[in-house]
Amino acid sequence: MKDFSIQEAIDIINSLNDASEIRTTKHFNFNNDLRHDNKELWIDILFNHELLGINKQAENKFKLCYKYPNKENKDFYLIIVINEFKSLKMITTYEAKSSRRMGENEFR
User: Is there a contact between 77 and 68 (Cβ–Cβ < 8 Å)?
Assistant: First the structure.
């Protein structure tokens, strides 16, 4: 299986047209519902907000960082996996204080 680079991951994410192209798991849905009032916030963020950074965690697994809308000093994280067919699977989502954001050299 091809191991995608950070730039390839960004290109794949930018090529998405809508959420129907993205697979979610029971684990993702459960945690997303538990952590966020708006169950579709991740969709809005992924398609309509600027990517602040991306970190490669493992082969084809990436952590995406976005500014949390309407929450000052918070970031919104999405963990994704890209398969060999260039489709996304959502792993989890969470928020964290912006001050905990990784250093500039760790994000692209």
Answer: no
**pLDDT tens column, 5-41:** 999 999 999 999 999 899 999 999 999 999 988 999 9
Total domains in the fold of the chain: 1
Q: What is the CB-side half-sphere exposure of residue 7 using CA atoms within 13 A? A: 0
Residue 51 lies in a domain: yes
Does 1 map to a domain?
A: no
Q: In what order do the strands lie in the sheet with 74-82?
A: 22-23, 88-97, 74-82, 61-67, 51-58
Query: What range defines the domain where residue 79 resides?
Result: 6-106
Q: State whether the Cα torsion 98-91-107-18 is positive or negative.
A: negative
How many other C-beta atoms lie within 10 A of the C-beta of residue 21?
11
Q: Report if pTM > 0.70.
A: yes
